[in-house]
């Protein structure tokens, strides 16, 4: 299931590790932090902004 996030919500979110901006990957339902090399999951329309829950990018 793909859930669209509000643009204003996306603009307000930052990486909790690096405090950098995030890129929204709608297909994978993740928020990508290029600077931390992490992907934060979005579950049921809610971004999970915990480093321990993030997936390392290869």
Q: How does this model look, in words?
A:
The chain is mostly beta strands. The chain has a domain at 24-58: Single Sheet (N-terminal domain of TfIIb), CATH 2.20.25.10. It is built from one helix and five strands; from the N terminus they run αβββββ.
Mean pLDDT: 90
What is the CATH topology of the domain at 24-58?
A: N-terminal domain of TfIIb
Distance between the termini: 24 Å
- Point out poorly predicted stretches: none
Query: Regarding CATH, which class of the domain at 24-58?
Result: Mainly Beta
What is the correct CATH architecture of the domain at 24-58?
Answer: Single Sheet
> Quick one: how many beta strands?
5
Strand content: 25-35%
What structural class should be given to the helix and strand makeup?
mainly beta
Q: How large, in whole angstroms, is the Cα Rg?
A: 10 Å
Order of helices and strands: HEEEEE
Largest sheet: 5 strands, antiparallel
How much helical structure, as a percent, in the residues? Answer: 10-25%
Number of helices: 1
Shape: globular
């Amino acid at each position: 299931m793909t859930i669209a996030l509000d643009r204003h919500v996306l603009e307000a979110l930052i990486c909790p590790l690096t405090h950098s901006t995030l890129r929204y990957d709608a297909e994978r339902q993740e928020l990508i932090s290029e600077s931390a090399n992490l992907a934060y999951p979005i579950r049921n329309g809610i971004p999970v902004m915990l480093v321990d829950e993030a997936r390392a990018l290869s």
